[in-house]
Amino acid sequence: MVDVIDIIERGRAAHAQITVSTDALVPLVFQRLEGEERPEQLDAEELFLACACALGDATAIATFERRYFPVIPAALSRLALSRDEVAEVEQTMRMRLFVASGPGAPPRVVGYAGQGRLGGLLRVAAVRAGLNLLRDRGRLDASGDGDLEDVPIAADNPELAKLKAQQRAAFKAAFEEAIASLTPRERGLLDLAIVKRKGIDKLSAIYGVHRATAARWVTSARDNLTRAVHRILSAKLGVPAGELDNLLPLVESQVELSLERMLRSRSDEPTEG
Questions:
Q1: Which are the contacts of 16, defined by CB distance < 8 A and separation ≥ 6?
Q2: Secondary structure class of 173 (helix, strand, coil)
Q3: Which of 17, 86, 77, 10 is nearest to 47 (CA)?
Q4: Which residue, 37, 97, 177, 231, has fewest beta-carbon neighbours within 10 Å?
Q5: With the C-alpha atoms ordered 173, 174, 177, 183, is the resulting torsion angle positive or negative?
Q6: Nearest to 256 by CA among 88, 131, 122
Q7: Mean pLDDT by 10-residue block, N- to C-terminus, for the chain (273 residues)?
Q8: pTM of the predicted structure, to 2 decimals
Q9: Distance, CA of 108 to CA of 215 (rounded, Å)
Q10: CB-CB contact of 233 with 244 (8 Å)
């Protein structure tokens, strides 16, 4: 059994400036561990910081933003967003991460933490929020078919314009292969959450797990899908994954735009696994 106090103390050793009490942290750490298949592998430093943020500790939130928020403008720089709109996305991320999503539910940052991928998850979530903002303002066709041309990009990104013009087929093939590579449970979760619009409480009831576990499963499924697209697209284009870094926000945009269309076409896939 994982020692919750040990996790907290190891995290505190890395963040001595954060003085949140152990008693306040214990319930959040316990909640995060519920349903975790390999709790001993969780990143104690990341989990400690996330739980302190969830408790509203100003020092923890400032530390989190200093460490992770620089990925937001970097990711959104490829989309046609103004400086004020980027700031709006940052504020959206603060609300989503640090404010409880419902009665008895911890802020989402707790569910995201512990796997050493907070930066990547935040980048994907920011791109998703940026796309939603574009949709809300009529600058992105929400009813489109997920083609690369649907995504407005900044005028000073010729490499993205080239990708949009030349790599549609490569992306579509990579996305289809990535969907097929997911486990049945991951495809089922994404189908329920994205296509059928089921909330976390409904998903937790369907799968018989805590709502925090269901939320974590959905996040993990989306993350696995995006990383699979990155890996497969890199192979199809014949370039190292690192050389695609400037294009990844656009790829992540396309994952979001394509998800509903592709999963809807696979609606007969099994939802349990």
A1: none
A2: helix
A3: 10
A4: 37
A5: negative
A6: 131
A7: 83 94 93 77 91 95 95 83 93 92 80 83 84 80 49 53 63 83 91 82 87 82 83 77 60 65 54 42
A8: 0.70
A9: 8
A10: yes
